Amino acid sequence: MTFDVKNKTVLVTGANRGIGKAILEEAFQRGAKKVYAAVRKTESAEPLVKKHGDRVVPIRLDLNDPASIVAAAKTATDVDVVINNAGVMKISTALDEGAIEALQFEINANVYGLMRVAQAFAPVLKANGGGVIAQLNSIASVKTFADKTTYCASKAASYSITQGLRDSLREQGTLVVSVHPGPIQTDMGQEAGFGDNASPPSMVADAVFDAIADGRFHAWPDPVAQQVGDAYRSFAENIVEAELQKNVD
């Protein structure tokens, strides 16, 4: 199914900076009438309000705070597109002393956070005709890098949840999109050591809305991601996106 964001209402988690901010800006470029900037501290979205006026509505949402997600869904009852961009990362191998604690932290935000967002907003999207849920999953969801093992594990889990959401929400007419950026110029990217060769956040924003417009499940935004996506394509098309027999003897 395809979807046109023109004159629609969009909600973006982590909209105050980096990829989330680029997604908010691109939503307006594509004709969205309003964007909820879903952030942990609403004052961080004030520059966006100053630039765009009342078309930007700051709303508190913390992936680690289930009550804030439920409250956001009760406020944003007119939302058509939910883009879950917010996430966390620790630099940790599986052998590091704090690896288990790092993974618990990442799972809570990157996996449970996604599930909380989906559970809260799926009924809202259904009431509004179906809409879209897009999840930022990263190439780390299909390839593990040793120094970011726990982060990769959390993103692999969120990718798995996203696949389940795709099937679960199809019946209510909700398009689900899984976005897999490579190295991007963000604060998180700097922490990960991506350096100056990383791609701009705008490239991710373009890929998100192109996938929504085309009705595609996977989006591989930047050159590194596209290389991974090309290698992964056969598996994605024949397994992940295929209608496989549900009960295998």
UniProtKB/TrEMBL annotation:
Its EC number is 1.1.1.311. Keywords: Oxidoreductase. It holds the Pfam family adh_short. The keyword Ubl conjugation does not apply. It is an enzyme of class 1 (oxidoreductase). GO terms for molecular function: 1-phenylethanol dehydrogenase activity. Belongs to the short-chain dehydrogenases/reductases (SDR) family. This is (S)-1-Phenylethanol dehydrogenase. It comes from Fuerstiella marisgermanici.
